[in-house]
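Let us practice reading a record.
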Amino acid sequence: MTSLSDSSALSKAEGVRMQRVRNVLEKTFNPIVLEIDDESHRHAHHKAMVRGPEAGATETHFRVLMVSAAFEGVNRVNRSRMVHEALAPEFSSGLHALALTLRTPQESEKVA
């Protein structure tokens, strides 16, 4: 996983879709923490997924931790909807699933 502080050093290791996802999330939510982990390799067994790894697709499953003030006053379900709406073009072109942890800065402080 990468955070904003070390994202430039690891951007070369990121795939094309992960870079696009990162760019959209940074532009849309201005996060103070953004960690993205490509978990596609863990889902290669999804035989029913037409655009999945078995069909040659990569970068289909991501785990995202994002801390943003944009989530203040927004419930958990609507936070997820916000992210899914922002990434709609990625879902229509092969992104299959996101595991989301979405927090406000105050919620993040409580966890730390």
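A brief commentary: The CA atoms of residues 65 and 112 lie 14 Å apart.
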